[in-house]
Write a structure and sequence with these properties.
Blueprint: H1 2-20, H2 22-31, H3 40-65, H4 72-116
Helix pairs in contact: 2-3, 2-4, 3-4
Organism: Candidatus Syntropharchaeum butanivorans
Keywords: Membrane, Transmembrane, Transmembrane helix
Protein name: DUF1616 domain-containing protein
């Protein structure tokens, strides 16, 4: 009996964290991939607000546009998919940023070498 109460409390805590933080934080990572663009507190604040907006819009989308019944499992899967998509976009952005920085460094190296000659 005690174990089921503890598991129920953990389910609620982790469910609220997932619902009120994770989707927004992944979207913030996709929107602002560089760490210096936002401070840590700004990221946390924006993540909370953006999570609520993402939750509402995702639920409305799957209900009104896709005509899928609004159940807890469907909402969880939709938000998990949204978060995964945002993480994939974030990783692609990071890779592109690194490639562009390497290209700029190589151009600067070639220009510096040409100036020496």
């Amino acid at each position: 009996m005690i174990i089921s109460g503890v598991l129920e409390a953990l389910r609620i805590v982790f469910g609220l964290i997932f619902l009120l933080f994770v989707p927004g934080y992944t979207l913030i990572l996709a929107l602002f991939p560089k760490k210096e663009e936002l401070s840590f507190m700004e990221r946390i604040g924006f993540a909370g607000v953006l999570s609520i907006v993402a939750d509402l819009l995702t639920t409305l989308f799957i209900d009104l546009v896709l005509h899928i019944p609004t159940t807890a499992v469907n909402i969880f899967v939709a938000l998990l998919s949204l978060s995964a998509l945002a993480l994939i976009i974030w990783r692609i952005e990071i890779l592109l940023i690194k490639m562009l920085e390497k290209r700029e460094q190589s151009k600067e190296g070639v220009e510096a070498k040409n100036e020496e000659d």
